[in-house]
Design goal:
Layout (H helix, E strand, L loop, with lengths): L37 H13 L4 E4 L2 H12 L11 E5 L3 E11 L4 H20 L2 E13 L15
Helix pairs in contact: 1-3
Amino acid sequence: MTDTTQRNRPESPGKESSTLIKRGGGAPATRGRTTIADGVVEKIAGMAARDVVGVNAMGGGFSRTLGAVRERVPGGGKSVTRGVKAEVGESQTALDLEIVVDYGVAIADVARDVRENVVAAVERMTGLEVVEVNIAVSDVKLPDEADDDESEPRLQ
């Protein structure tokens, strides 16, 4: 069995040096670089935005329609990035969100809550600084409107 840590050779017989030879140079946390894809930040932001009370859906009308069609296709699944666009740099990110709010909620309060939740989630999970979260409210979901996600398919 061999010892992977090497010690400096003693300069004189009988004297042993306790100085260790360092391999790799520096702390492990400083070796290498971590990059985070735009899609990763978009998923985190999308999930955080959907958790806010008063947010009915994400994305504009056209993207929600396409998303509803994609969800009906086998393997299509629900897109958590719908309505979210992220620009990621080395240490910062900026986000654009498009949301649909429930009728009767205070839009300014919902937007504030979305912004706070998204910033907290993205910064905690990625370590990136969120420099801005732009929110566009594209629609209001009325109580008597059917959800796009819950509507029955026309063909069976």
